[in-house]
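I am still getting used to backbone structure tokens and would like to learn alongside you. Label the sequence line and the structure token line clearly, so we can match residues to local backbone shapes. Go ahead whenever you are ready, and we will take it from there:
>
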Amino acid sequence: MSAESVPNACDVLVVGAGPAGSACARTLAAAGHAVLLVDQHAFPRDKVCGDGLIPDAHAALRRLGVYDEVMALAQPVRHVRCVAPRGGFVDVPGTLAVLPRKVLDHVLVRNAERAGARLLAPLRFEAPLEEGGRVVGARFRAGDALHEIRARWVVIATGAVPQALIAAGMCERRTPSGVALRGYVKHEGMVERLPQLQMVWHPKLAGGYGWIFPAPGGHFNIGAGLTGSHIQQRDGRHKMQDVNLRQMFDAFCEVFAPARELMEGGTLQGELKGAPLRCSLIGATWSRPGLLVTGEAAGSTYAFSGEGIGKAMETGLLAAEAVIATPADDAAVRARYEAALTGLAPKFSLYEKAAHVNHRPWLADLVIWRARKSPRILRRMSGVLEETQNPGRLLSWRGITKLMLE
């Protein structure tokens, strides 16, 4: 990228062109703001993710006007198959699809560009520009060249890796909430056998779960990961729970026959890749004068399921709406945005509490056993997926106790 091609000013500078950043940039540009959308990678680019589009993602895609374009490329799915340690399972109906992030993120970036945002990539965020205690832009690096871009607002949407948050003075916890490892496998012979999103709990996967998600073209996204894997020490700091993700992935293939068959009979596309997760709207300061933090950088992933695409877009939309409402009033923008995230926080808290099932896989046996016998409980599980049902009523200790009485 030549120095001449990098503008030196804009209204809003969005750093990170994933779902949150692209949703934010598109909404701001459509409202008439001059928006620069910056990413450290040229597009299309890969992103480690489960690739599942659950109902909140569908809703956000509709708001962004890109739902039909995404669904034309995605693999539609009707159920999540929840598999318990003893092998029992239940198929939970839902509004679902799978699309690799390399494709999805490119669609979202193009959508932002169509609305008038300008993509600058690859540019690596170095630090914010500050004057009088307010962020007034950011400094970027492209190779050996440095670029300074001034902006009325800067939005950090750089995902779970904390370096940008640290540089911007917004990181409250460097340790991620979880970690995951995934790969793509092509296996045409298993397409009819694995039409659902498969989520598997087992003692050898304690602290998380394994998954197989059917993707377009006879491909499968297969992985394993931990949620809530940080440990708070006596000094208040956090460290990662000791985990070897490759061993966890191998254990998943050992205990779940379809995973083993997929890896043994299919063709691995590329390599297995790992990534951190930031969950439950915890770990980052949400705003400071001139700057907002959104998406997974702000912790927009659910701790229970590790799903975060929909909520990333939703928080990006909230950031854009706050700026659009009163762009010249720092206090009003920050108050509006932080109030919106605070409004989402109770829901994240409920999914944080539900995540204890990941650490006690035997509870999955109980819930799935009861759901197989009770259409009412199955409807509740579907409601958790659709976000119309409080997961605490089903997956809290109190909720699980009530299962035994229904």
